[in-house]
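Dear Dr. K.,

Following up on our conversation at the group meeting, I've run the structure prediction for DUF1092 domain-containing protein from Neosynechococcus sphagnicola sy1. I'm pasting the input sequence below exactly as I used it, so you can double-check it against your construct before we proceed with anything downstream. Let me know if the numbering doesn't match what you have in your notebook.
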Amino acid sequence: MTIWQADFYRRPLQDESGQPLWELLICDQTRSLTFSALCPQANANAEWLALQLQQAIATTQHKPDSLQVFRPQSLTLLTTACQELGFAVVPKRKLPALQEWLRECAQAYPHLPNYNHQPYDPLEIPKLPPLPLSEQLWGERWRFANLPAGELAIAFGERPIPVLHMPEELLPLRLGLASHVAIPGVVIDGGRQSMRLARWLQSVEPVTLNYSPGAPDGLILEAGLADRWVISTFTDSEVEAAAQLYATRCRLAQGLHFLLVQPDDSGITYSGFWLLQQSASN
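The predicted structure tokens came back this morning:
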């Protein structure tokens, strides 16, 4: 399967008339294939993108099966451009090859004659205010939990869980974590809403579940490319202490953590399990 990664967005560059420039970057997962093109902001549309994608296909003599995109602002334009070309656009937050290329470009822009000296973060995604979870999805109760890294795959990977997200690259063994390291998590007893909540979570594609200190403290689910949801808020000092321990354990486990949804605490059936990892920017 051929997978390309792409970004199309405004750069800290301008043309001769002072108009901002947009840049299309395309690469594969190893950057053995790269393609780039610039256009004035006035031409930054799906039609221009489709022409560039056709040129990239002609140049490389390969047509991708899918195009991965991490930036919400370019998702719609690229999706429209790809519709007639016969391959899908897949939103995905972590695209290491492309994002590393963007960092390298950001270091090179200040040395170009058409650099406009404007502040620029190549990976910045504006954070949306977190939305409250629908009452129809509320479970009966939730709690923090943890499991030794050595037991994680056995406890959940070998169970018949209807909604299971356990990427191989996030398994503790692949990350080099010792078997005794505590992997923190959040467990939701969903009761009758358990499968409804699991299916909803599957649809929004969880990325991380972060402790957010404040007044009140809360648990914020990062999902999709830029969505944010309030899973719970709390003011109890004991829950706050448990949340701080959760955050500490996340850091000690290279950001690894989990979210488990189950009907009850019997341990007999599970509705959904997600193995997640915080990034440095979370």
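Two things stood out to me. The mean pLDDT is 93. The radius of gyration is 22 Å.

Best regards,
J.T.
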